[in-house]
Amino acid sequence: MPSDYLSVALDVPLPRCFDYRAPAGAAGVGERVIVPFGRQTLSGVVLAVSETAPDFTGLKDIAAAPGDLPALPADVLALCRFCADFYAAPLGMVLAAALPAALRQPKPWSGDGATLLWQATDADALLARLSPRARKQRQLADLLRTPQTREAVREVAGDALRWLADWQAAGEVIAVAPERRTGVPRQAASPQLNAAQAAAVDAVNAAEGFAAFLLYGVTGSGKTEVYLRTIAERLGRGEQVLVLVPEINLTPQLEARFRQRFPDEAIVSLHSGLADGERTRSWLQAVRGEARIVLGTRLAVFTPLPALGLIVVDEEHDGSYRQQEGVRYSARDLAVWRAHDRKLPVLLGSATPSIETWKNATEGRYRRLNLPLRAVGGAVAPTIEVLPTGRTALQDGIHPLALERLRATLARGGQALVFINRRGYSPVLACNECGWVSGCKRCDARLVLHLGDRRLRCHHCGFECAIPAECPDCGNIDLKPLGQGTQRVEDALASRFPDTPPLRIDRDNTRRKGSLEAMLAQVHDGEVRLLVGTQMLAKGHDFANLQLVVVLNADAGLFSVDFRAEERLFAQLLQVAGRAGRAGQPGQVLIQTRYPEHPFYAALLAGDYAAFADEQLAARRELLLPPCASWLMIRAEAKRIETSLAFLSALRGALSGMAVQAMTPIAASMSRKAGWERAQLLVTAPTRGPVVAAAAHLATLLAARPPKGVRWVIDVDPQDV
DNA sequence: AGCACGCCGACT
DNA sequence: GTCGGCGTGCTC
């Protein structure tokens, strides 16, 4: 009996593959095998097949080749390999991230029926058999005259899927394979393009081979319409399109818009909020080419798409494209790599592009497509003003002029939003007598006062306790909350505007599934006219009647150690501002600041992100900061900071002789977190090559001799410093 | 990462 | 006398 020898990548943090024996032809490259590994059984992906036995005596046989995963195509394997090499991660872990969970389990996947359509063999015979009183069953039987998806069946009744199974067993219903779609999609009526949009669409449609485009335009400038037109063009050529979006809660809105435009297309959405089975089915639909549009969050970048013709990355600057746990990849950067590898156009959209993308556009590697401000539907740009807070006494943290504008807006019948990026009642509780403040025992952070349930909470480690009745140090009973959080602002506004009670929206009161949607519905209905919220409200949600936005604590990002903080603040403020005045009325945005003279605000008030980005880029060049240099960050945490620092110093030593500059290890900016003391080692080089080599070298070193009592992370191209 | 084996404290 | 603490070692 001839055997194959398989090189298999497993989801273990080891930087190598493992060899197995298998019956000849049992599994090919890119397919899934189930293998014994130590005392456990794991799922792995075959990377190579050889007929000659490897030089290893303890070789084991595979346990099974379930054949439930269509072989990952060479381009996806190449993408995963690039990701593993670039981010110094084991290939098996990258592959695991690329597969839906059901295809990572060491057991065969058996839920594939859902990509099929269901149809009655003889609907009239079925109806004749059913009781006249079984209304829902009859409705389903009637529906099944034409092929239906599992989802459509489920919508008929809670038990409908069970009836379907029974009828299928009785041969009354059969599964039919969906047609693989090709050709021009049917399209719902689409709005007229303006000149800039038309030029952008033409440019993308004309692209042959790799081409990267930066679609630069603010909220309301019509970026989505450009996406839809270029997507339609690719579908018309029989191709598939991958659309990446930053976050799950943005997917339904965009998805609805896509479905509306392409009513006959199977549009598949892929994100981590999906149930395992559903995600696996959607993924398989995309892999088989049944779904031509894939809309997903960062994990969707790995989806095998046989006829891929275009990749769109919406809000390309958004931090959520960066995976922060496990393999720390940037889905945006991988998307560009994939487009280049497959010789496709990639369209990066943003009102506030990342400086990385800006640099590429400036230097001509990406082509910039400008959409002028608010060109669509008569929308007008909001007026942005700065309110200096140095001299004026604030009322509960709010400038009197801001209160006055709020009053006027509400009196006019408009909606207003007060934006404060800090939840809780106040960020710290302090003693007036002795200077005690509510610090967290396990973190270098303050416990935040939550009045709703009368607790002090650490927002970093989750520690919480009751509010002390007196100062733990001096016994003073006069403890004062310092500073504002969403709850305090809510209270303040509630007492000032009793006729229009404020609604607070932050993570504290939207934990339950669906509660955010319920609250947003109240806002849309006009039931709520005064809103208080955190950055949760900055993204995606459009409130037609929102006329005024007040931003309370913008300054926090202004003097950060992180050189990207200003860029993020600009993006966030512009995004919040974009919420105001969408339906023809100009919105007002008021930003409270203690530093009105800061050059940052000059750029913001001018609404000129391009000028700001040019300045930022010039500064990065001057100071040799990314993207004008390449960075690698090694983060370490141990029970004692000395251990973390010593560990990093040893790593630094291990880099001598390499073409990188390794800095002195330093304590992290919040050095104590959840009882661990954290430090970081920065490694830089003018280009990526040496940095990637250094990362690989350290990863190999650490895998061979893992340190004791130290947790570590290798972060190539770190986004938070 | 799991999941073993492996030697030292409080319990049926 | 055992149950179990997590230290360290290996996985084709």
TrEMBL record:
It holds the Pfam family PriA_C. Residues 402-649 form the Helicase C-terminal domain. It comes from the Bacteria. The keyword Metal-binding applies. Its cofactor is Zn(2+). Residues 204-371 form the Helicase ATP-binding domain. Component of the replication restart primosome. Belongs to the helicase family. PriA subfamily. This is Replication restart protein PriA. It comes from Jeongeupia naejangsanensis.
